[in-house]
Amino acid sequence: MEGPVEGAVIVDGVQSELPRLLTAAETAAPVEAVDVIAEDLWRRFDARKVSFLIVDLTGKAVARLYTAGAAEGGREAERIPMAGSVYEDVIRTQRLYQEAAGQGQRVIAPVTNRGDAIGLLELLLPAAPTQDVLHAVGEAAHVLAYIVIANGRFTDLYTWGKRSIPPTLAAEIQYQLLPLSLSCEAAQFTLCGNLEPSANLSGDTFDYTLDRDVLHLSVTDPMGHDIDSALTATVLVAALRGARRAGAGLAEQAHRADQSLADHGHGHAPASCCASSFTADGPSS
């Protein structure tokens, strides 16, 4: 990196691009926010290619949503199986990867927020990067995580990138019932769940949330594998969330979920549900 960049700040003796990158991303349209970061890196480091890859909902592939300098876009994206690949290693280890690639260097950084592996930032550089460049790449990957999360509220682009096949109606309902992040890494705990919405799992789902001193967790399992089980899960999850957000205790949450199913579950599948809360003293169910 040569000299200070306008808009950058110095943090612990290292030039930080966070303020400038965030400002540029916020100025862009939601569907172009990731593109702005990729193109910034492409120009700043004279990169041959800068790509953002998002992890598929199955956890088995990544989709290359954008490549700086390439004419990509629309509803076509390269999908790459992760099994046995360097992409899988970076997602698993959460460490920046670097290797020689032709006459340049390939650098891959994890795009992650609180343990939620969102995707990867990949660069092809003309020469071996300095520690300052690697720091800047890692910083940009960190920014990308927040950008994807924030702009995902305004566009289906990132949701589409996570889907390898069009979902059924039951799967779409199930997808909407899942927590916004399947993983959460905090000082007090680490939680990780995984459930691929599909026609064969149309009622199974889980949910969690963190209060100041309590972690709430629920798992629902309606019988069947059709739209009725998905609708039953909708009633259960909505009742649990509504009671929890109203400040009800665990027993009251379970009571309201049971009552809601009795009142509104006519003609739909029966279900089982496990709700727990965790404090520093241990779980209660």
Provide structural commentary.
This protein is an alpha+beta fold. It is 35% helix and 29% strand. The protein has eight helices and 14 strands. It has helices at residues 18-27, 33-44, 86-93, 131-151, 157-162, 169-177, 227-245, 250-264, and strands at residues 9-11, 14-16, 49-55, 61-68, 78-81, 97-101, 104-113, 116-125, 183-185, 190-192, 205-210, 215-222, 271-279, 282-284. It has a six-stranded antiparallel sheet, with helices on both faces. The longest helix has 21 residues, at 131-151. The protein is elongated, with a radius of gyration of 22 Å. The termini are far apart. The model is unreliable at 1-5 and 7-13 (pLDDT under 50).
Summarize the structure.
This protein is of the alpha+beta class. The chain is 35% helix and 29% strand. β3 and β4 form a beta hairpin.
* Parts with pLDDT < 50 across at least 5 consecutive residues: 1-5, 7-13
Q: How many helices in DSSP terms?
A: 8
**Anisotropy-based shape:** elongated
**Any idea what the radius of gyration is?**
22 Å
- Give the N-to-C terminal Cα separation: 54 Å
**Helix coverage percent:** 25-40%
